[in-house]
């Protein structure tokens, strides 16, 4: 806790702008620091009594996630167009916690996702909804986590490939749905889906890497589309998509590294999404996963870097374990915010990245050794072997040839 206490003092002086005037941004930052600092101090006392702390409340989180899979609280009705996302977030979180539901439940999930599949390819947010790249990415990831023949065979890959073609523009960008917005999430979701289901072709992603690099901003991160602000969510999509396309050399990797390492907060230990914004547990994955990808890219020139973790793994784990766990189960953005399924998934995914680093060395687990989570693939965000199993199944079972493309 030395680190936080020392840095808190430095940061207090910096909550004013260049003229020494407090701004909304600086005072919101100071408020979060004060809350986090207080939590860290009271934690320090508890940790003196119980050396097993900080503890990841695995059983509590698992129990809640399994209940969410069967019955969602009423306030989730606004996510009726995101049901494959909810399924993916729950199944991936459970996998990280080593607590996969029974095969009967998983089979009924496959059944439900099949109802969300559109006859023209891709998955909607629920039965009879229009297909969307986000929900299609979530459905493909969920089915790959389930990993049974039934799950793999439920995907109509010829129609899926047609669906991706309908969303592609001549400049290599992808719209998220027919007539919808074109942004970097579209390119990432399309590449992740196409690679995992083995429907990738060079023609489908012609110019996509060039379009993505046009989203890299003067700060070094990537924006949702050209000319906009760099953000962790979009930066993950940008660099993960370039890595999936094997085209990382087109971007400025040093600028990306500088931008992303500077998004880890000095007092809180978690990541912010963009410059001058607040820490949020979900960026533990969106920002945290960028750094092992960057290590792997840099290791192409310098092999030793494959084991080099480019962020403070302990500080991120402390933020997640001490500040993001809701006492009733589930995880959250920051203290004072309610838990939710999205933040449960991405804080746990970030915790896994922080524990396993580049995946090449030993795990570094803060607190009890029982806090260790399963590994996640930094490009697809499902377990590495589940991504591998899906891809190899689809290599062994190619879709019927699509003569039109
Ligand atoms: C694969 C896929 C679909 C990825 C999604 C990536 C992702 C999380 C994008 C974030 C988009 C965004 C601009 C959030 C800003 O929210 P805000 O202004 O509320 O938050 P902030 O203050 O932390 O920036
Ligand atoms: Zn968040």
From TrEMBL:
The keyword Transmembrane does not apply. Its cofactor is Zn(2+). Its EC number is 2.5.1.58. GO terms for cellular component: protein farnesyltransferase complex. Keywords: Lipid metabolism, Metal-binding, Phosphoprotein, Prenyltransferase, Repeat, Transferase, Zinc. One of its GO terms (biological process) is prenylation. Binds 1 zinc ion per subunit. Residues 56-382 form the Prenyltransferase alpha-alpha toroid domain. It catalyses: L-cysteinyl-[protein] + (2E,6E)-farnesyl diphosphate = S-(2E,6E)-farnesyl-L-cysteinyl-[protein] + diphosphate. One of its GO terms (molecular function) is zinc ion binding. InterPro entries: FTB, PGGT1B-like, Prenyltrans, Terpenoid_cyclase/PrenylTrfase. PANTHER family: GERANYLGERANYL TRANSFERASE TYPE BETA SUBUNIT, PROTEIN FARNESYLTRANSFERASE SUBUNIT BETA. Heterodimer of an alpha and a beta subunit. Belongs to the protein prenyltransferase subunit beta family. This is Protein farnesyltransferase subunit beta.
